[in-house]
Each structure stands twice: as structure tokens, then as C-alpha cells.
Amino acid sequence: MLCASSFAVLIASCGSSETAPVVEAGPVSLRRLTAEQYERSIHDVLGRHITVPSRIDPDDRRDGLLAVGASFAGVTPSGFEKYEAAAGTIAEQALGSGYRDDLVQCAPASLTSADDACAEPFVRRVGRRLFRRSLTEEEVEDRVVVARAAASALGDFYGGLELALASLLVSPEFLFRVEEAEPDPSNRARARLTSVSMASRLSFLLWNTTPDDDLLAAGEAGALVDEAGLAAALERLLASPKLETGLRSLFSDLYDFKQFDDGLVRKDAALFPAYTQPMIEEAKEQTLRTIVAHLAEGGDYRALFTTPDSFLTRRLGVVYQVPVATASGWEPYRFPEDTERAGLLGHISLNALHSHAGRSSATLRGKFVREVLLCQDVPTPPANIDFSIVENTAGELRTARERLEAHVDNDACAGCHTLMDPIGLALEKYDAIGMYREAENGVPIDTSGELDGIPYEDAVGLGVALSEHPNLGPCLVRSLYRYAVGRDAEPGEEALLAALGERFASSGYLVSDLLREVLLSEGFRTTSGPRGVTDTGDAP
Amino acid sequence: MKRFDRRTLLRGTLAGTAVTMGVPLLDCFLNAHGTALAQGAPLPMRFGAWMWGCGMNPERWTPATEGTGFELPIELAALDRELGTGGKLRDQVSVLSGFDVKLDGRPNFPHTAGLMGTLTGSLPLQDYTVPAPTLDTIIAAEIGGFTRFRSLEMSCTGNPNQSYSFESQGVANAPEISPGALYTRVFGPEFADPNAGPFTPDPRLMLRQSVLSVVKEDRERLLQRVGAHDKQRLDQYFTSVRQLEQQIDVLLAGPPDLESCEKAPAPGADDFGTEVNQSMATNRVMAQLLSFALACDQTRVFSMMFSDRISGLRQPGSSAQHHQLTHDEPLDAGIGYQPEATEFVYASMEAWADFIERLAAIPEGDGTLLDNCLVFGHSDVSLAKIHGITGVPMMIAGRAGGALKPGVHVAGATAPSTRVGLTIQQVMGLTTESWGTRSMEATQPISEILV
Questions:
Q1: What global pTM score does this model have?
Q2: CATH 3.40.720.10 is held by the domain B6-190+259-449
Q3: What ipTM describes this predicted complex?
């Protein structure tokens, strides 16, 4: 039902002659909260003053997305140990004096003993936000008993409540998002997500946090399996300032920016003194700001790769070698033509991420463009392979281009490297931290090349070629869809992806329209049912 | 099908001397699974894995002769150390060369195939996938329940997301990368210090137990609502909850009753990263903390990733990392190897020697802590330049309570590397009779190193 009549107003291009593709959606499964979702949920439900311990259980990145890994991640003994410790410190902060009154919303009869009448509504209300649904009576009662026993043992009402809250925070119902299916009354042959499950799906996709009260109420009232109800909720979510958070999370996941947060993008201090952790965190922020501002203005997605508009801090200005007037904080900045920078591929963040610690890597950069931006597979290199000609910077081959061209003379390498290297060579004037250079080892850098038939002279030209590449838009559609449903697309969803791609194009590549289309699509709302036994990659 | 093998068990747990014991006496040493030590046995046995990335140069690492008394080859010269507790370090270590990872036509995913073959007994069908549980988790499943921590995972790479300890693809045990965090986790306020006066259990411990019993109810209810894939994940969650309950039980029982147990001194400020000197320093500090943790029986299973399989070790000021060098650096025709890359092989072997030397520094019973350990040192490849997986370098340090004969060089003659994993499991008291799949299936332990 891509083009349901009630949504026609939202989708200008929806014509009556178009037929909706047949969709056979894939399975649902538990989705473990990512570290970011965990932290945002705590802040939204229990208060922003809370310091959430970092590094609880690492996220599982699979097929290029944390959002997909979350459908497979489990909880290890060491991970659970940390979740339990985190629950204790979070509960203690949430119920600390100064904050507890707003959160608990009732006063106990005595500070030094149990009070079920105050504990119960607290468990019910906070539990509903954390579990993303109303608690059953049993679930409430179990926690009231914990609060009562602990309050009596400790002689402290709030101490008891802390343990009840901790029991919510270590529950599988909080740590995993539960997506449930039910028969679809409009088509008995298939299953749809329940209205309550839809509330979480919408909220985590658009805001990357737990649903708010209104969305939960809509979910529990059954409104989110109703097309009008879904559309209304969707418009509210899209209009919220929290959408910016959701977009940042989407692109951070897609571009693997978590590596910056984890301090894993390291550069040699002697070779790159300008490279510091604060600088690279600002570089990440620059890219996210650029994306969010561009999309918020209704910009064409493809123009992200050609726009000279961005934001800078003074620290970033040092690396870009441009003056930044604002002494501290951010200012909008348009790169002049002579800086040879335009589009995201000119940013420090992506160039530093796809480089080695001591040198740039045309291959890694090309691989990123092929795999992440164009959704093309690049095979892994053969095991028995001699790289020594290719990478030896001390020998006769002084530039990356000279070294990499050796690949093309070698049949085993040529097949894959002709896919990656020409793209990366266009970016060679950006060194391992994204700083501009004219020459490598004394030889001027030649950035010319072609991308699948479109020639270019330099990095700016590569951005233009990329923006015109037929895969660019469809690839974002596929990535967004995988991010939304937490798994790869099934064969029965390919027609839907193709249709979504066409609509994305006819909207002028508006990401907000694409989000609407995906969320209203059958693929997002229906499922084949719960996932079967895990495929571990080995033969059965 | 596993069969209960008392002989194997005894070798693993009672230093071989108990083989003559009658069966009725034997049974009192068994836990409910009939496979491992019961509490109260004299000294615990520990297993650990220590991994370095990017292998070695086979001709320079492999001893020329088999058996004992071999001459240490140049790349194993780090083992030529005198121990503070007497004897030589080299006599605590057996060298296992010539054992292969066999592909059976599957792809040699660079650095992954060899590692997974040795650690899981199976070869992956896709890159970056884990075909079966790793050796350490197999052993932890049997003996991890007796201690406060089922296992401790550590890494010197600074990457908080990667260890080579997997229950399955989606269940990876995250490593401690910071010595400070490891210290706090083991020796923080929860640690019951046997030398700190009378023990009074913290009443909050029992309240935490009550929290855990509630979430077990949650899990039961949730199981009714999910599919087969998620049932497995919830079972894993439940195992983790049970483990924490046991951990709290151990805390409630009071300080460990072990003569060598004392609280570790706090480590200095963290300085971790991939410069080779940073990783080596982290390895030494972690080994020290671990040795105290083992002496206090806080865990019996551990793993350490010294360097990633795609080794990021580097020298300050150099643009090349270890892994890159193994592929980029030209072979020096005069000497027959890559000199710069080989510096990292030396460094890795020094770090391995540092690690086991530290375990041998703590006296325990009539010997040292290392005597009651089995530490498995291994890499992902042999010659990294070609991602070689024949003759994957492996070593076993320690006597495993008297079950092992160290100081031996065994040449595997193309036997599957899983024979090592099988031997380890049997020595650790598991009843495994065969391990690995297809050509990697091993049925014969390495008798040359068994007592």
C-alpha cells in the first residue's frame, strides 16, 4: 500500500496509474539497544542529569550497520555484569535527592519504610516508558515486592525503589526491543507488526530513543496499525526537533562514526601533530552538521557530495588551512573554489577514517564509496598475494598512483582494484588526516580519473560524478530500509526498494519524503514472522 | 556424543597422581556435571589464551629438533630467561610447530580462517564470521561457574569492541582495554580481601539477588512471545544472569581461602594504544593484575589479545603498521626475511615471555601459579606475508597441575591444529573425545606433552 489514498496528500508524485509492488517482508526479532539508544532512553525517561556509564556491552556491527547487528547481539556474562552495575548507578542518580520528587510524583508515608501505595504507580509509569508498553500486573507486582523487601531491609523507602528501578533496567524487556507480529486483518495470509511494536519502530528510527507518552498511547490504542493514525503520528515525529537526533544516528551508523567515539581512529603523533581527539570529534560533528542542515533545508541528497557549504571551528580551520573568524564554537562556512573542497568527500572525517595511521589509502577510500555510498560489493583480496611493490613508499614508485597502478598489471588484483583505486586517487590530495597537499614524495599528485564512465579532474569533480551516479539514490534507499527493519532486504522486498528508489528520484531526492515512504510502506509494517534459528555462517 | 572419561578428568584435575584412586573417592571431587573440580579441592586449575597477530617467519621461529633440550631459535630467544622463582622460562613452555589449519576448499579469508580454525575447530563460510564457540568459552562453560568471574578478557590494542572470545557470532565477550578498569572490576570495593580483617557480607548483595530473580521471571514471560532465533539469545541472557548470581554467591561466601591470595596493587595511569611499547607495557600491567586475580581464584579462564590479527602495532613516527609491513616490506634477499616486520615478531615473543614469566612469579603450593595454569599462546597465521595457515605457531605454557610436561617441541607434521584444542580440553577436565569438523576433526591428543 505504497500509495494509499489517505496518504496522497503527502506524496505528491503518487499517481493512480502506478501499482503498488507485491511485498513479502522479512522476519522480526529482538533488537538489543545500542549504546546510544540505551543512553538516550535513560535520559528521556529518568532525567538528563544522569551520567550513563560508557562501554557497557559493545554494539555488534553487522553488514555495515549497528542497526542490523542489534538484531543478532546477545548479552554476555561480562556484558550483563556491566548492565547490572550500570543499573545500580543509574537508579541511584535517578532517585537521588533533588531529582526524586519529579520522577516519583508521590511522597512516601515514611522515608524509612516501605510504601506500596507510592511505589506501585512509580513502577507502573516508569516501567511503561522503559519497556515501551504497559506492564502486566505480574510485572508490576514483582517489582513492588522487591521495593518493599529492600525498603524494609535497608530502612529506606528510596533505597527500595532504587532496586525496583534497577530490576526494570536489567530486564530483557528493556535491554531488547521486542517486535511482535499479529495476523493482518486486511490480509489474513500475512502478519503485521502490532501497534505497540510500531510505536518503538517509529521512535527508534526517527528519534533513536524510546517512544514518548503520546506515541505509546497511540500504540496502545491500536492507532499505529491504522493508516490515518500512523500518518498522523508520523507527521508529529517528523516535525519534532528530535528528528535531527535520528538523522545524526542514521548517518553515524552508516558511516561508522562510532570509531571516532571509541578513539579507534589513531594517527601517528610525529607525522600528524595537528591530529588530536578533540579535532577529530569536531571533524565528525562538522560532517553531521553539514548533513542535517542540508537535509533540513530540503536539500537534494545528491548535493551533499557537491555542496561547498559546511560548518567550521577554528581548530578545524587549522587543518583545512582556512581562516575561521569565530574564536570558539561553530560558524557556517562556504569553501572557496580554490580550496579544492566540496561535498562530504572533502571532509576531514571521511578521509581520516579511511586512511592508515601513517598514510592515506586510496583503496580504503574507494572501498567506502563503492560499498557504503553505492552499495556495490568489493570482493576480499586473495590470501596469497604480494603487496610489496604496491605499498613500498621507499622504492621507485613515489606516489600512490604509481604504486596502485602496479595492481592493474597484475590480473589477481586488477579486477577489484580498478573498482576502488581510481576513486581513492581522486582524493589523494587529502592526506591521512584530510589535510591538503600538492605532492607526495616530491611528485605532483594527479587526481584525474573516471567513475563508471564519468571523467573528472579532481576531488570536486569526483563529487559531481558521484552525485550523478545512478546507484547513489537507490543505495541510500536500501541502507535506510535496512536500518529501519534491522536486517538485510529479502528477495520479496526488492520490488519495493525499486519503487521507493523511483519515488525518491521523483521527489527530487528529499530524504524527509523518503523517510515517509519507507515508514508507510508495507515492508516496514508487515513481516514474515519471528526469525528462525541463527545462521552462524557455517554449513548446517 | 561425549563420553565421561575419568582418566582424562584425573589427569586434568589431580596432577595425575590420583589415577590410582578408587572411583568412589573420585566422585566427591566432581560437580553436578561430573566434569570439573568441586569447591574445596586443593588448588584451582586455570586456562588462558594469549594471542598475537601476524605470525612469524617459520624458518626462524621453528626449533630444529624435536623433544626436549632443543636449541631456541632466534625468534623464540625471548624465552631464554631465568625465572625469579628458579629455573628457566623456556622449560615452562612447549612449542607446537607444523600443525595446520585445513580449508577443505573453503576460502582462506585473510587472518580470519586460520584464527577461527584453531580457536573453533571449524572454518567460516563467510568472512568475519564465527563458525562455532571459541576454546576459552567452551572451557568457561565447564569451569567458569566456580569463580566470581566466569572469565576475564583483556586486550592490549585499545579497541573495546574486539576480543577473540566468542560464544557465537553475536555473543562476543568484550575485553578490558584499561588496566585501571580491570583493577576496579576485580579489586574494587566488592573484592573480599582476606587480609582486611573480619568479613561481613554487604546486605545489598542479597537484595541484588532479589532483583535478578525478578528478571528471570521476565525472561520466562518473554520466551512465550519470541521465535527460535530469539529463544537462543534469551537463553544466552539467562546464562549471563545465572553467572552474576553465582558471582554474588561467591562474594557472599567471603574472601578466598588461598594462601597466595592478596589484593593487587593499583596500577598507574592508563596509557594504552597501538605503539608497540604501549601494548607491551599494557600487557605487563594486565599480566600482573591477572596473576593476583588468579591467585585469589577470582576467575579460572582468561584470554588476552596482545595484538589484533590484522596487527596494528607500530613504532612511533613510522607510517607503517605491523600488518601493513608484512605485506608491503620487500623481502631482504640477503637475509631472507622482512627486517622491519620481524621486529614486531620479536616484540610479540617478548610480550608472551613477559606474560608467562609474571604467572611464574607467584608462589603457589609447592611451585608457582603457572604450574597450575595452561596458557595457550597462538597466532592467526604462520607467515603473514602470504596469510600462511600451515604450521600456525602455537605454544603451551604451564603444567596444568602436573598434567602437562612443558619444555617440549612437537612437530605436527601437517596434523590439524585442532589437536591442540582437543588436548587442552581434555587436560582441563572436559570429556571431549573429538573436536573440530571435516578435515579439522581431531581425535588424538598430543601425547608428547602429556604426563
A1: 0.87
A2: yes
A3: 0.90
